[in-house]
Amino acid sequence: MSRLIGVINLDHELDQLKELTYFRCGAAVPFASRYRLIDFTLSNMMHAGVHDIALFIRRKYRSLLDHLGEGRPWDLDRRRGGLFILPPDWNDPTDASRGDLQHVHNNLDFFHRSSGQTIIHAGTQHVNKVDIEDVYRYHQEKNADVTLVYKPIDQLESEHDPCARLEIDENGRVTGIHQEQDHHNIYLEMFVMDKDLYLDQVKHCIAHQDNHFFRDAIQKNPSGLRIYAYRYEGYHAVINSIESYYKNSMKLLDQQQYQALFQNQPVHTKIKYEAPTRYTHSAEVDHSLVANGCTIGGKVENSILFRGVRVEEGARVSNSIIMQKCVIRKGAVVENVVLDKDVQLSPDRTLIGDIRVPYVIAKNSVI
Amino acid sequence: MRKKEVVAMLLAGGQGKRLKGLTRTLAKPAVFFGGTYRIIDFPLSNCTHSGIDTVGVLTQYEPLVLHSYIGVGSDWDLDRLDGGVFVLPPHEKEDGNNWYRGTADAIYRNLHFLDQYDPEHVLILSGDHIYKMDYSRMLHYHKEKEADCTISVINVTIQEAKRFGILNADDDLKIYDFEEKPEQPKSTLASMGIYLFKWEVLRRYLLESASDSESSHDFGKDIIPLLLQHGRSLYAYPFAGYWKDVGTIQSLWESNMDLLVQDPPLDLNDPFWRIYTRSPNQPAQYITQRAILKNSIVNEGCMVDGEVRHSVLFYGVEVGEGSVITDSVIMPNVKIGRNVRIHRAIVNENIVIEDNAFIGPEDSSDEIILFDQESQLHARI
């Protein structure tokens, strides 16, 4: 459905994943054994046939650019359109735009040139499998100005605290947007809006010295927009802290959660050419997710191993997340730990974190 | 078009009859190997790593899978503006006949392809061997010897020798005798089916062989003996690494099993010599609490709830609770039910195995069973 234009806006995503976001933005954080958080958003858009995607980035985007390339894994390497990675670039001294509105204002050409007529706007902190085509259909059915995607959450957790909530009437119309923490309708930071209306609202916000599109144009709704809510029931995880990252990663070890995230349609990511994983005679692995390129001779339990990890004979990894190319040498013990890429754990070292607050080791460390 | 120093021609038209059901609908070079690869990934990746950026792939038998698999060659970095990978199926000409009559004929019928690059040397490869080889070293050797033709050779046992082209060379490795699949092999230097020719020389002999109605238009049977007869300079290039002709169910199985030893002779994890392949894009493998995995290779997209010992699992394989897989190769997307036993077998792709089934050789036979669509039909009767 090439009528849709994707906008992925990383402006309001805070890099609060401690060591994992010291040198990369949240969107580039590795997740679920072989992906980066942005893969889920891109794959959802890809499956809805979105050919034009603007990505608004501001800081720490080197690893994100490396990951995305020209967008081939998401079928975005197009002759016309495709993936537009748009870092900030301001040369116009008369430009009065502020905040995330700057991105739109400075890239109006992208919007004008795209043949798409409807904006699908999303972030990367809410990992989900939203069927965007279905949201679009709902948006049209309701003849809405804006359609917000939400999920009712039974069990609210601390990562939901910063999320916006939706008050919805019986017709599905949004009557209020707030952050009252005991309210269950969590907004997924995903909305659909007509392109012309979107650009009008952006212009209006800039003229009023606003700096936050969602808050100033939608939440406060000064123009009286018809805002509707689309109810989503599938897989959903909010990743906005180390605790939520660890907790939601570990939840994927539950078979139903794993299937909810990966069944039906594939999630695409940068192509690597790792060999399949090798289990040696001494391997003991249970209840784990393992990516390709690993060599496992030790014990691995309740853990998530990214690509190219080596666990030597006599080593033990439990309740941990081990990122790309880490090496756990003989006799080393790792428990409740998140090891970023390329960490080497020397023989017989022991690293034990707390099950609620895992120990995070920065990229490239040798311990 | 820029003149190329070397252009590779990959012979990928073979049916691979001895692989039985595995090649019913695909050519032998497209047969799966090693948990994620297809055989053709090896020569293609070797070309890329050897700096050969122009490769013609000659197809004939069941080309659909092979053609769509190769695509524009981007997975092997062969989507080049000047060069790249070209799929070359047989085509009709003015004289009508359109099937490749033999390996040499296949090259002869693509003279135009080669002429447009006007290469100094042409490297002939086949698509049915598993090995990692730096062709640029062979090229260096070929130029140093000023050879008209250099044949890559490997030492085999005298029993195996009958299956290969066997050559005899002097101390300087100059070849003086070549026999295709001899009954009584005189040496154990086997041709690996990798020939490096001076294009100018090969071109002349291809033309000559093409007009000879007696010829079988084959490199081993016709071209090489003819070159020797005419006193051309042919050299043997000794190769010492892992090399396996995976022409039979048995050898395909063996070659997969060779990956399971400690420090395997074929290192698939070498970051400087990756074997590129088309990524199936599957989620990480899911290993349950009950699973047991020993001495095995498992790809992404697998869900293992049973026991896997000394086996190779391709992507998308599911192993149900209580099932035990030993000494076997399970091709992509096979769904294995509960309490299934699979022993010394190759299970073809996309097959569903019902609960409590047994797949393996009768009693103590050391035969390797191929379980495919056909054997499934028999099983139901």
TrEMBL record, chain B:
Alphabetically ordered keywords of this record: ATP-binding, Carbohydrate metabolism, Glycogen biosynthesis, Glycogen metabolism, Nucleotide-binding, Nucleotidyltransferase, Transferase
Residues the UniProt record annotates as site (Could play a key role in the communication between the regulatory and the substrate sites): Q60, W99
Binding locations of alpha-D-glucose 1-phosphate: Y100, G165, E180, K181, S191
Keyword presence, RNA-binding: no
Any single GO BP term: glycogen biosynthetic process
UniProt keyword annotation of RNA-binding present: no
Reactions that this protein is recorded to catalyse: alpha-D-glucose 1-phosphate + ATP + H(+) = ADP-alpha-D-glucose + diphosphate
A GO molecular function held by the record: glucose-1-phosphate adenylyltransferase activity
Residue intervals of the Glucose-1-phosphate adenylyltransferase/Bifunctional protein GlmU-like C-terminal hexapeptide domain: 289-367
Pathways per UniProt: Glycan biosynthesis; glycogen biosynthesis
InterPro entries: ADP-Glc_PPase, ADP_Glu_pyroP_CS, GlgC_bac, GlmU/GlgC-like_hexapep, NTP_transferase_dom, Nucleotide-diphossugar_trans, Trimer_LpxA-like_sf
Stretches assigned to the Nucleotidyl transferase domain: 8-260
Pfam families: Hexapep_GlmU, NTP_transferase
EC number(s) from the headed UniProt entry: 2.7.7.27
Its job: Involved in the biosynthesis of ADP-glucose, a building block required for the elongation reactions to produce glycogen. Catalyzes the reaction between ATP and alpha-D-glucose 1-phosphate (G1P) to produce pyrophosphate and ADP-Glc.
Assigned protein family: Belongs to the bacterial/plant glucose-1-phosphate adenylyltransferase family.
NCBIfam families listed in its UniProt record: glgC (TIGR02091), PRK05293.1 (NF003670)
Name of this protein: Glucose-1-phosphate adenylyltransferase
Organism: Paenibacillus polymyxa (Bacillus polymyxa)
